[in-house]
Amino acid sequence: MMTVQLDKSKHDRHRFDCGIDALNNYLKLMACQQAKKDNTRTFVLEDESCTEHIIGYYTLTMSPIDLATLPARLQKKHHNVSSGGLIARLAVDQRYKNKGYGEWLLIDALRKLLMASETVAFPLIIVDAKDGAELFYQKYGFTAFQDAHSKLFITIADVRASIGPLV
């Protein structure tokens, strides 16, 4: 399996339905516009039997970090940090749910952000867990920010330790 960047001329965005209107509409209406403006990058996992069909997707960008919302140990260690990598959206089409694709997409997103951090250093990956997805991310080591329970983070060091060296 491999993700590719969303291509509106190839991928059937209108067929995608994860059950959450905001995530469906972002993919259908905004993802390509945001990529064209260099604001985000959206990656899709294609169905190998029909590559126009999107199994799932995630969107990556950068996000400002409010140091005051981090645990004290991280505030001290990263006192000059202003931004981190952001998994802005992650969704799986309802037809493909409960088959491990969400986990696979998350690990792929973490790997891409880890690779980016090797070139442009940033210490944290942030996720805005939509519609009660906090438990999904916490299962993979994400911790809630002090001021917002649906906004979570994981350190690049923890991702590196979990994923191992990049090849």
From TrEMBL:
<keyword id="KW-0678">Repressor</keyword>
<protein>
    <submittedName>
        <fullName>GNAT family N-acetyltransferase</fullName>
    </submittedName>
</protein>
<keyword id="KW-0012">Acyltransferase</keyword>
<feature type="domain" description="N-acetyltransferase">
    <location>
        <begin position="39"/>
        <end position="143"/>
    </location>
</feature>
<comment type="similarity">
    <text>Belongs to the acetyltransferase family. GNAT subfamily.</text>
</comment>
<dbReference type="GO" id="GO:0016747">
    <property type="term" value="F:acyltransferase activity, transferring groups other than amino-acyl groups"/>
</dbReference>
<keyword id="KW-1277">Toxin-antitoxin system</keyword>
<dbReference type="InterPro" id="IPR016181">
    <property type="entry name" value="Acyl_CoA_acyltransferase"/>
</dbReference>
<keyword id="KW-0808">Transferase</keyword>
<dbReference type="InterPro" id="IPR000182">
    <property type="entry name" value="GNAT_dom"/>
</dbReference>
<dbReference type="Pfam" id="PF13508">
    <property type="entry name" value="Acetyltransf_7"/>
</dbReference>
